[in-house]
Amino acid sequence: MPFYNLTGNIVPGATAPDPENNIYKNQPGETANLLVGDAINPGIDANGNKLPERTYTGNNSTEGTDGSSGVDYQYALSVANTLYGFLPEAIVKKFAEGYAEYGGDKDLALSFTRQSSEYKKEFGWLFNDDGITLKMTEIEAIGVKESFKNTLRELGIEDFSDFEDEFNEMVGDVAPVEFQQRIDTVYAAINNRIPEVKTMLADYLGVEYDDATIFASLINPKIEDKVLNGAIDTITLGAEAASRGFSYSFGRFNELKQKGMDLKMAKELYENASGIIGMASTIGRDLDIRTLEDAALGDTAASKRVTRINAELASMQGINLGAAKKDGNIIGLTED
User: Fold this and answer.
1) Can you give the pTM of this predicted structure?
2) I need a surface site. Which of 111, 210, 216, 333 has the fewest CB within 10 A?
3) Domain count, the chain
């Protein structure tokens, strides 16, 4: 039968436990391959320190009493529920097993629990990059995630199932107050477009979503995909145009999105478009919104046309106009 070292690697040719060289039959927290008298792999605690070694007695702590510790499993389970009842049931049971295994030592039981596969399945995201130490305690992490949820609840979002991965990634890196500020900033930027988005979604899908769902889809791609398979970005661009009085076409705005137009670019373009088109008409030039859109995205012909109109306005009316640019591309005209 092969043996494993503390890193979990099989040790070729090993035939007996060799504690001096840290060779054991089992992985930390497991007893399936052990015989009575075998050395139990103690593993390491959350700080990287090796746990005390023990000898396997043949008794499984989940079946009653571990002869080496004298702690009854049912008693250990009651302690586990008292201390960690807020954690998933599998974690609570693992703590109870460790509590019985280590004779009622809560610290060793907790270290035992954090090394288990059950724990890593539920809280693998809580480990630092070293895979050993934790970013914070479990109860602290749960509190942080609850703060994130409260921020979204204030905006009417109640379903957090699609946010769990993002919450887990932010724990330890993003403070609740920072998350609140981020959400407030995004909400302030798009709140006035939600009515237009709602109307367009109703026209496009025949379904009317509430404000909370629309906002959630604007900040979470997974929800966006659920709502309309990625089309909400297109509709948001269209809403920006519609709010400035320009006609809406899903196909056209989807084309603009595919070419690289984002919400910031659209906002700059449509805010100035009416004034630019109006000035061009005063000198007999027909400048339409499509030309400005194409120029914003770097179309050569459209950019040259906007530049020529700019020059004519400057010479015929004495107006000193500058080209508004983004990433080197003309997106409109601005009066100095």
Assistant:
1) 0.48
2) 210
3) 3
